[in-house]
Amino acid sequence: MKNLSLILRIVAILASAAAVTLFFISKGKLAEKQTSLEQAQAVTQATQSELETANSKITSLGTQLSTERQSLADTKGKLESIRSEMYTAKQEVTRTQQQLKETKNTIAELENTATRLRTDLVKTEESLASASKEAELAQLGERIEELAKINDTLKQDLLASAGLQQSATPEPVSNAVARGYQSGFTPSSTVAVQPATIGAATTVASISTSDGIIILDASPELGLSVGSEITLVQDLKALGKIRITQVTEQLAVANILPGTRLRGLSKGDTIKVMH
User: Fold this and answer.
1) Within its chain, how far is the Cα of 263 from the centroid?
2) What is the DSSP annotation of the chain?
């Protein structure tokens, strides 16, 4: 019994020692766990702070991304607008080039037409000048017949006057001359001849000495009018006279008067006119 009691006491002592040992061991591990937990909490807080910072950066980056997307969309819209304007401008340039080409063709056709009409006008004016010359010749013939009749009448009047003078008493010469002037002289109503002046220069458009027709380039500075007689001057030398029969905006048709020699004059020569 004593041995059993001793054994139990020894067991109790060992159990107490083991319990104390386990207590201290558990207490040390608990402290380590507490320290680990505190460290883990500190790490968690640091991680939470970093996470919040990261979330803030992500939010900022999202805002920047949205701004960049909006800017990109605006740029894309402007690019599309510029492309549309460039396409419209290209079409406009193409249409303008086409219109310019058509205008050039029209101008060429008009120039050809103008050249053809000018040639036809020269031919027509030459024909009109020829017809006018024939009419003028007919008028001159009629005028010559009238002058011949007037000449015959004057001859008869002179013969009658001579018979009357032989039968009548002579009277003073001054009275006879005065009466002769009163009976036979008719005052002329022609305007006094103005001093001759050399006008502007012009160019010979066409000339036909055989037909007696000359065509000049007309301009307002020349002061040409239908029916006027002018003298052609070249190198301060009078070539002869012509009579204007027709005047247009560009040309003047004239007849070469008798006694005028224009053999040295040809188309394209520059001359001056003297009124």
Assistant:
1) 44
2) -HHHHHHHHHHHHHHHHHHHHHHHHHHHHHHHHHHHHHHHHHHHHHHHHHHHHHHHHHHHHHHHHHHHHHHHHHHHHHHHHHHHHHHHHHHHHHHHHHHHHHHHHHHHHHHHHHHHHHHHHHHHHHHHHHHHHHHHHHHHHHHHHHHHHHHHHHHHHHHHHHHHHHHSPP--HHHHHHHHHHHH-----PPPPPPP-EEEEEEEEEEETTTTEEEEE--GGG---TT-EEEEEETTEEEEEEEEEEE-SSEEEEEEPTT---TT--TT-EEEEE-
What percentage of residues in the chain have a pLDDT greater than 70? 75
Residue 202 contacts residue 217 (beta carbons within 8 Å): yes
**Number of neighbours of residue 215 by Cβ within 10 angstroms:** 21
At 37 the pLDDT is: 85
Would the pTM of this model clear 0.70, i.e. be above it? no
Supply the pLDDT for residue 190.
40
Yes or no: say if 206 and 127 are a contact pair by the CB < 8 Å rule.
no
Which pLDDT tens digit goes with each residue over 76-131? Answer: 999 999 999 999 999 999 999 999 999 888 888 888 888 888 888 888 777 776 66
Structure tokens at 211: 């037909």
User: Token digits for 252?
Assistant: 């003047």
Determine phi and psi for 167, rounding to 5 degrees.
Answer: -90, -20
CATH class, domain 198-274, is mainly beta
Up-side HSE of residue 232: CA atoms within 13 Å toward CB?
28
The radius of gyration computed from the CA coordinates of the chain, to the nearest angstrom, equals: 65
- Tokens standing for 36? 């680990």
Q: What residue has token string 């103008």?
A: 114
